[in-house]
């Protein structure tokens, strides 16, 4: 796309259907047939979806901040007060990221593998793999459900305990003092001891970057790992297309037991992107937009991270890898590399502050690993204000994991008015009140409802897009997108089951 391309500033979203329900990829409700053959549709997953033909990176970033995500060109937003498994948008402040002990072990394991070819003595279970939704116990009865919740709460208590232990700074100081006294008594060189301690402390304060830089300088290493950031349409991307697709099929089959992986589905789900940029978004390189990050080990692609680079955040959309390398805890490793990448980019893009890992689900262990990256916030679905994760989780747990408004006493920002919504009508763009004049009876009621839904859930973003209704257009928007809408919205349901 060159700078003379005038299409780049236009965002067009197509209304698909009223917010609807479907089977849930997390708790599996709505998927099981009852004994009498009818569907179990009790408390199913509930979301609103639109199809984005073109979407400016800023508009998409703003949508993420009111709870939306994308899957290919399909955008969706869980209807939190209706859906069975409330999904809160989670973000990590990369400037204040605190690396945990487990994260350091993951980085060290990779380092030892690359440098010495050494396999980890003790494999770190990849929480991104642990209890994937497909392996979650089927919730058959309320008792089982209660047990599951109890386990969840217990996990959190254990986590809190270990955190408190880590915070036992006073005790640590006391022990340090005692150690110095013992050494003094034995007549040892106390300065040497203190120097060693300082080195140890420093190694504890290491950043992700400090682990990563070593690979670059190392010589005579057993393996070489390179991360290549590529964009659709580039020669590297096209050349590696087949290899990435084969890797995706292997991953889906072995990790998610999914053999329904057509090439068209893969392209619609992980390559197709509605994101467009303005020339100003392309001044700094890499330009804002959608990318694949290929993890190339000794010349072979062993993992791919699908990411969106937006004005304020790097959003991780999906990650797939060769399961033969699961001993390297690839899910966690990639998240750490993406955080480091965001930190690096923020040096030249000061507005870039956050790493988005999608949705956080309190009752889904696979998704709760996201909370291990600190400090993180969860998005309040009513006020669109962020709350520190620990505080928000406490509120969710004390509300029995039901949908929780984090700031119940604060008002919801006022939704934009009908008068600010632009619509495509036949071959023109007009404001919604003008379109209303052309409608009457049931059509008017129906459109008012749809517009209401959009302005309520898309919020201020509705003012920066053109809403497209195929039923209002004589000449269909001339591109191939509408033909693939159905298929991609199907693949989107997969993304919700297996999102990074
Ligand atoms: Zn559910």
From TrEMBL:
GO CC annotation: cytoplasm
Residue ranges constituting the N-end aminoacyl transferase N-terminal domain according to the UniProt record: 23-105
A molecular function (GO) term: arginyl-tRNA--protein transferase activity
Function statement: Involved in the post-translational conjugation of arginine to the N-terminal aspartate or glutamate of a protein. This arginylation is required for degradation of the protein via the ubiquitin pathway.
Protein name stated in the entry: Arginyl-tRNA--protein transferase 1
Biased composition (Low complexity): 485-500
Enzyme Commission code(s) on record: 2.3.2.8
SUPFAM superfamilies the UniProt entry points to: Acyl-CoA N-acyltransferases (Nat)
Region (Disordered): 479-500
Organism: Panagrolaimus superbus
Major enzyme class: transferase
Keywords for this protein: Acyltransferase, Transferase, Ubl conjugation pathway
């Amino acid at each position: 796309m060159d700078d003379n391309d005038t299409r780049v500033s236009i965002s067009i979203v197509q209304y698909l259907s009223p917010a609807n329900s479907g089977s849930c990829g997390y708790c599996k409700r709505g998927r099981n047939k009852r004994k009498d053959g009818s569907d179990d549709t009790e408390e199913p997953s509930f979301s609103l979806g639109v199809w984005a033909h073109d979407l400016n990176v800023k508009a998409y970033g703003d949508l993420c901040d009111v709870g939306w995500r994308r899957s290919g060109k399909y955008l969706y937003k869980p209807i939190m007060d209706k859906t069975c498994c409330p999904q809160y948008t989670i973000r990590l402040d990369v400037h204040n990221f605190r690396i945990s002990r487990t994260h350091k072990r993951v980085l060290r394991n990779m380092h030892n593998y690359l440098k010495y070819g050494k396999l980890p003595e003790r494999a770190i279970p990849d929480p991104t793999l642990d209890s994937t939704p497909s392996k979650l116990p089927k919730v058959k009865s309320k008792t089982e459900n209660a047990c599951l919740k109890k386990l969840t709460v217990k996990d959190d208590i254990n986590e809190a305990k270990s955190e408190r232990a880590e915070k036992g700074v006073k005790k640590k100081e006391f022990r340090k003092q005692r150690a110095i006294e013992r050494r003094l008594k034995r007549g040892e060189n106390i300065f040497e001891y203190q120097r060693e301690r300082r080195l140890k402390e420093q190694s504890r304060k290491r950043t992700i970057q400090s682990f990563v830089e070593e690979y670059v300088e190392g010589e005579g290493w057993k393996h070489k790992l390179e991360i290549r950031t590529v964009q659709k349409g580039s020669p590297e991307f096209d050349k590696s297309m087949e290899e990435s697709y084969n890797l995706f099929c292997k991953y889906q089959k072995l990790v998610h037991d999914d053999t329904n992986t057509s090439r068209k589905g893969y392209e619609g789900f992980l390559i197709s992107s509605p994101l467009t940029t303005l020339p100003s978004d392309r001044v700094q390189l890499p330009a804002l937009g959608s990318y694949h990050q290929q993890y190339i080990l000794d010349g072979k692609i062993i993992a791919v991270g699908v990411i969106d680079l937006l004005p304020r955040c790097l959003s991780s959309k999906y990650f797939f890898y060769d399961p033969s390398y699961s001993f390297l805890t690839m899910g966690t490793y990639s998240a750490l590399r993406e955080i480091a990448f965001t930190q690096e980019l923020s040096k030249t893009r000061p507005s870039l502050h956050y790493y988005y890992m999608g949705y956080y689900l309190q009752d889904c262990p696979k998704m709760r690993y996201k909370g291990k990256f600190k400090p993180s916030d969860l998005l309040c679905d009513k006020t669109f204000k962020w709350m520190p994760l620990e505080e928000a989780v406490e509120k969710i747990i004390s509300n029995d994991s039901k949908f929780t408004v984090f700031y119940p006493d604060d008002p919801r920002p006022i939704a934009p008015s009908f008068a600010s919504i632009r619509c495509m009508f036949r071959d023109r763009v007009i404001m919604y009140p003008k379109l209303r004049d052309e409608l009457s009876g049931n059509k008017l009621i129906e459109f008012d409802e749809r517009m209401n839904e959009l302005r309520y859930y898309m919020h201020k973003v509705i003012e920066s897009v053109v809403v497209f209704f195929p039923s209002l257009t004589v000449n269909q928007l001339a591109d191939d997108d509408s033909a693939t809408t159905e298929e991609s919205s199907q693949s989107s349901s997969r993304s919700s089951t297996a999102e990074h």
